[in-house]
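Case study B.
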Amino acid sequence: MTDKKNNLALTGGAAAAEALKQINPDVMPVYPITPQTPIIETFAKFVADGEADTEMIEVESEHSAMSADVGADAAGARAATASSSQGIMLMAEILPIASGMRLPILMLVSARAISAPINIHGDHQDVMFVRDAGWIQIFSENAQEVHDNTFIALKLAEKVRLPAMVIMDGFQTSHSVENLEILDNVAARKFIGEYTAKNTLLDFENPKTFGPVALPNSYFEFKRAQVEAMNGVIGEIGEIFGEFGKISGRNYDIFESYRLDDAEKAIVVVGSTAGTAKVAIDELREQNEKVGLLKIKLFRPFPYKRIAEALKNVKEIAVLDRTVSFGSIPPIFSEIVNATGRKDLQSCVFGLGGREIFVEDLKKIFEGNWGERGNLGVKFIGLK
Amino acid sequence: MNNWQNIEEGSIISHDIKKSPKTGDWRYMKPAVDKKSCIGCGQCFSFCPEAAIDYDVERKADIDYDVCKGCGVCATACPRGAIKMTKNS
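Model:
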C-alpha cells in the first residue's frame, strides 16, 4: 500500500483512464466532448499501446455511444463510456433504456454546464438533468476518488445490475493534476473479477428478448421492480466499500462527515468544492467556530435515513447546489429538506458555468446571515 | 399475470425454443421450387426476409417451411422463374 511506483501525478481524467485500463472493459464506444476528453484520449492511448484490449468504437454521436453500450452489455460484454454536458443530454433517450433493461454500464462523467448560452466549464447541471434516469450516481471530490469510485461503481453496478455514473467536476477535477495512488494491477483485477452477465442475447441455448413491449397490464410492475432494485443499492454498497478498503487502505462511505460531530453549523456539498470547504472549515475551527461538512458521494439512490441521522444534531445547515432547478428549489437542497424534514435550511447556488468558489466565499457562507430560511429561499454565491 | 415481486428482471423475457411459434403457420401462399430449373445461384437467399432458404444436398434452393411466411419475394427474385407460388394447403 505504500508502494511508490503506484503513486502518480495525474489529472482526474487520466486517473479514470488508469482505472479503466485495469478494468479492461470489453467494449467502450466513445464520442469526444470537452471536458471528458482527458478520460478517453488517455484510455485510447492505452488501447493503442496494447495495454488494454478493449474494443473502442468511434461512434457518430453520444446517442450512438450509449446505444452501442446497451447492445454490447445486452450481448454479455462489460461496457463503458464517458461523456459530458450536451453529450449526456443527447444520451438522455437511451439512459433509461440501459437502466430499464438492468444493464450494468459504467459511465465516467466530467460534469459540465449545459447550453444555452454555451459554456464548456464545470457545474452539475448535466448530471442533475438525468438524475431520474435510473442510474446510480456517485460524485468524486478529487482524482483519487475518481480512480477509486470507478472500481467501486463498476462492482456495485454489476452486483445490482444497474448502470452507474462516476461523476467528477469538469476541469476542476478532470483537468487538474493531483497526486494519487493507483491500485495495484493484481488487486484491482481481483476486486473487479470476471464479468458474467445474468442474461445475454448471445446465449443461443436460452434465447431472450430484451426490450419487449409492456402494455398497461405489465409496465407498472416492471417499473416497480426497478424501483426496488435501485433501493437495494444502499444495502449492497457498504460491503463493496469494505472490500475496497482492504485492498487500498482507503475507507469510504456513502457520504463523508468532516468535523461534523460537534458542529453547530454545517454545509452540504458534492464534488470538488468539498475540498475547498474542508480548508475553510479548518480555518474557522482555529477561531473556535463549530463548523462542519457533509460531503455526499452517493446521490442516486439518495440515502435519506443515514443523512438525516448524520445531520440530526446540527443546528444550522446550508446546502450548496452547483445547479439550478427552474421554478423549483435546487435538487440537493430538496433532498436534504426531505431527508431532515426541516424547513429552516439555507439553499445556496454557486459555481454555474465554472464560476470559481474560493475558501473566502465558503467562509462567508458560514459567517453570513442565513436570513432567508423558512421560506426555502435560495442565495446565489459569487453572483455579480 | 405476475405481480411486481416475481416479474422478469429488466423486462427480459426467456423463451422455450420447443414452444416457439413457427412463423410458417401464418403462411397463406406457399413457394414451390422446381429443382430442375433451379441453377443454385442463391439469389433468393439474399432476398428472403426470413432467411428461410438454404442449399439442399444438390445445391438447389431448399425452403424451410417452418419459418417461410409465404411472402413471395423469392418467386419474384428468381432469375429462372424456378419458384412458383401456390395456395398453401
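Chain B is about 10% helix and 20% strand. The remaining cases will be described in the next quarterly update.
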